[in-house]
Design goal:
20 strands, five-stranded parallel beta sheet, elongated, alpha/beta
């Protein structure tokens, strides 16, 4: 078989792989359900109305305009069989390659917390960010117009997870609330609370990062609650494992992630968090020609 690489997913990893292969003139087909590449680290800025979507999303066809050996296919992938290096699209079309790069991204892991999937707002896609932004804008507009019910928690936000997404989102929302109050548009700003089961924010990073993020969020007016787990999420409140409750109409979920469903059912036994385990060179053991 001639060299033909299938790239599943047009995010940071998929686009980088396709560009590098395209530089070498390798025949590549990149498949993604969206026709654009999103810069995921800035989704929180879209959600908090700091950036328009256009600033973090770029059409795949524009990115690969100068790469004649790279074909971009906008389609849903219904199934992947990595043992045969085959992708089956939702319309029934089948693609096969000499190699497959699995870069399908992640999805939120709600860890079985009741109500989290129904009521929380994850931040893994442009659609997620826009959904959260519209929700917040509606609540804020009602409060500024004096039309909101003024119930406890109407403007309050609970951010679950003290990793980069949670910390950045907490800071951005705290700044937004402060700015609206300072300009007189909002009489009482919403309280932003970040919650994590661990003993520090940004746990995988340095102790300086732990202290800096904690101090900066506190200075911005956010409340930091550590060593606390979420036991249930409702439309109007969040319950914790210490039996306390915070009224909140908005819960942002940054509490964990798992591998994409398409990767979990592609053949290899999923590892921790539903991810595909790889060797140091990113190959998948037992699946020749497959990288993830």
């Amino acid at each position: 078989m001639a060299e033909h690489v299938l790239v599943l997913g047009g995010g940071l990893a998929g686009v980088a792989a396709a560009l590098r292969l395209g530089d070498e003139g390798v025949d590549v087909t990149l498949v993604d359900r969206n026709d654009y590449h999103q810069f995921q680290p800035l989704l929180y800025q879209v959600a908090s109305s700091q950036l328009p979507v256009e600033d973090i999303a770029r059409p795949h066809r524009t990115i690969f305009q100068g790469y004649p050996s790279v074909t971009v296919l906008t389609a849903d992938v219904a199934a992947a069989t990595l043992s045969e290096r085959r992708l089956v699209l939702a319309d029934g079309q089948t693609l096969t390659g000499s190699h497959v790069v699995v870069a399908a991204g992640a999805r939120p892991n709600f860890f079985g917390v009741p109500g989290a999937a129904e009521h929380a707002f994850p931040l893994y896609s442009v659609a997620d960010a826009e959904r959260l932004r519209r929700h917040l804008q509606q609540l804020l507009q009602e409060a500024m117009d004096g039309e909101g019910p003024g119930d406890p928690g109407t403007l309050d936000v609970v951010v679950v997870g003290g990793g980069p997404t949670g910390v950045e989102t907490t800071g951005a929302l705290a700044e937004l609330m402060h700015a609206l109050q300072q300009t007189g548009r909002l009489e009482r700003p919403g309280q932003i609370t970040i919650v994590d089961r661990g003993k520090a924010l940004l746990a995988p990073f340095s102790s300086e990062s732990h202290e800096y993020s904690h101090r900066k969020l506190t200075e911005a007016g956010a409340v930091v609650r550590l060593e606390t787990g979420v036991s249930a999420v409702h439309a109007d409140r969040v319950e914790f494992d210490d039996s306390s409750t915070i009224p909140a109409r908005t819960t942002v979920w940054g509490g964990g992630e798992s591998g994409a469903a398409i990767a979990q059912n592609a053949g290899p036994a999923p590892g921790h968090g539903g991810r595909l385990d790889v060797r140091p060179d990113l190959t998948v053991e037992g699946y020749p020609g497959v990288y993830a």
